[in-house]
Please model this.
Amino acid sequence: MKLLIPALLVLYHACLVVCDNHKIQTLSQDERNKLLEALNKDRQEIAKKIGIEFETLEYDMKCEQKVNTLDACEHIRKGESEFLLILLRRNDVTSEYIHEWNIHHGYDDPHSLLFFPNDDTICCSKSFKCSKKIPKTERGAQLAGKQIEARGACAAMRKRNYRLFNIDEHNKINNATIPPTSKYADIIGVPAIGDPATSGDSVEGPASSSGNKSNLIFLFFA
Model:
């Protein structure tokens, strides 16, 4: 009995840690409003500079609920689906890991996905989190044992508008100077990754659009 009580206390503490790590935090109305205000303002400023009409983004709570229920590490590993998921904070190891399979690695700047002119709907999750050491069986020996670190994600899509944009418009967006994803991570309260010495070089979105690795993920929403 004396041994059982300490064992139960250890188990209880472990449960608290696990439950806390999986705690889902939805965005407050204030956070959603500030995110939309900042992102739509940035999109319109880019629109004026490059001469392309941008849709005004609206927020989708059902989309956020679906992103919140995802197994973040599993989706980073598989990279499947129809919707584009933009990581708000990630380290270089995560970018390299994703780049191994990403069929859209041709994008010079995946952060420009927040600036697709025909997207009209967005959702974000500050609970999306992955912290995982890469096994030897995945992605080749050069990444084995390295640490994936990712925090926060947004999904952008078209719901009201089905206008397509051409290659010339796409190139203009890729060549534009757009805000780093960390700006929007700060707005909705996504925690920083932490010490780069223990989790790889911290990267939270480039200040410009040149020469960056892909960090988009495809998601399937039934």
Notes: The longest strand covers residues 121-133. The radius of gyration is 19 Å. The chain has one domain: 29-219.
